[in-house]
Structure formats: C-alpha cells, structure tokens
Amino acid sequence: MMKTRNNKAWFLVLPVILVVSFTALIPLMTVANYAIQDIFSPDNRLFVGMKWFYDITNDTLIIDAFKRSFQFSIQALLIQIPLGIAIARIMPKSGWKASAALVAVSIPLIIPFNVIGSTWLIFSRKDIGLGGFLLNKLFDFDFTSDPKDGWGLILAVDVWHWTPLVALLVYAGLRSIPEAYYQAAAIDGASTFAIFRYVELPKLRRVLLIALLLRFMDSFMIYTEPFVITGGGPGDATTFASILLTNIAVGQFDVGRAGAYSLIFFLLIQIMSFIFYTVLTLQDREEETKTK
After folding, report:
1. Is the whole-model pTM more than 0.90?
2. Which residue segments constitute the domains of the chain, with CATH numbers given?
3. How far is the C-alpha of 281 from the C-alpha of 166, rounded, in Å?
4. For residues 219 and 217, what is the distance between their CA atoms, to the nearest angstrom?
5. Which of 86, 163, 237, 273 sits a CA distance of 20 to 30 A from 14?
6. In this model, does residue 5 exceed pLDDT 80?
C-alpha cells in the first residue's frame, strides 16, 4: 500500500526560517548592500563596487587594530584556560560548599558589561580608586597615560569577567567523569598530575574546545570594557577592531566603509574559528579513521 506523501511538516520549520532571516540574513544583506556604495544621504548614494574592501585591506590603522585584537585574544586564552581549569579542580565536588562555590564563581558572569567597565574604571583610578591607590604603592600605575597599564587593565578585567565561564564548563566536565576512572587510578598509585594528564584532560577535550572557541570569538570582539575604561587609549593602545569599527560607523558616519569593514570582520572570525576547530579536532578525526 502506497503511503500518501505529506509535506506539511515543513511548515513547522517556517518560524525558525523567519527568525533566522530577521535576525541574521536581512541585517547581513543590508550591510553587504552598504559595503558596495558610498552613501551621502538616504537619497544620494554612489555605487563603488569593491573599493571599500580594497581600502580596508590596505589601511594600516585597521590592520593594526586587528593585530591588537588577535594579540589580546591569545593573551586572554593563555591566562583564562589554565586558570579556569585550576579553579574548577579546587572547587568542592558536592554538598553546600559546592553550591556556594558555583554561585560565587558565577557572579562576574551576571554583571552587565557597562557596569563592569564603570566599576573597574573607578576602582583603578589612582586618585579615587582603591585598586589604583594600592598599585601606586608598589609601582607607578596610570592607565590613562601609560599604554602598557591600559592594556594590562583591560586584560585583567577580561580575565576577571570571563575566567568563571571556563571554570564552570570545566567543572561540569569534571563532574561527568565516572568515579571508576579515579578508583582505577588510585589502585595504580597514579599521582595527582598523572590523573589530570591521563584521565581528566582527555575527557575534557571537547569541553575545552567549546571554551576555547567561545572565549576566542568573544575576546576578539571585545568592545564595552575598553570603550568605558580607556576609550581605546592611551593613544590607540586599546583601540581594538570593534572600537575602530564603531568610530568609523558612528563617529565618522562612513556607512559604506563600515559595512565593508563589518563583512571582513565577520569573515575573519569565521575563518579563525574554523582553523581553531580543525586543529583541535584533528586527533579525534585521526582516531575515527583508525577505527574504521
């Protein structure tokens, strides 16, 4: 007996298509439309083709901003991933202490970005902030005039804000490891480092992959904290790619150039995330190939 084909189920996918179109495709196509025009007013625009893309890829200010963003992301990852693992490993495993630790670690994640920026701005000022006052007892610290201090402060804020995310992901990964693995390691007389190296780290590979991708993409797009604390300065020390994009789009109202900049920014993040994912999952694919 032939079954009657019924494609009405596709209508269930329609809401998802509409939402994705509204939130992603339409804005992206709008930006792409701006990127090939020089817009003087809503009724006065000139088609320029790929001119903005050529200008941006040869603009040293933009290239330097991308280099700063990439350098900042690498530094943030080198600190946050090991620190997040260390925090997760010392957190209590059960009981009320575990619940209290989870709440305490999560606090930086629930604070709004602009509040974090304003808080650290006041806290780090050497004239009115406690942190700035104490640091100046040890060495000369002024993030408003010293580029290294400004960079270090933004990095410290990002570490304080986002290391808890890594810690929570790793903590969840650790709790999912069966107790039998630890019992077997104890019978073999494995050291704490050996347990971490040969039991926990392999089991955490996928969790760390998620943490790396999330933190890389987010730190590469950092905006609010440096905008509030340093405004991109001193000089251009903390003018990251996202801040420069805002300056072009809003400050200079150069919409066409900003559109091309946005597309290149978007493409760079996709490419680097793909490279991260490909490199980090290389071992998994090799193991799957061997088992076939």
Report:
1. no
2. 49-291 (1.10.3720.10)
3. 19
4. 6
5. 273
6. no
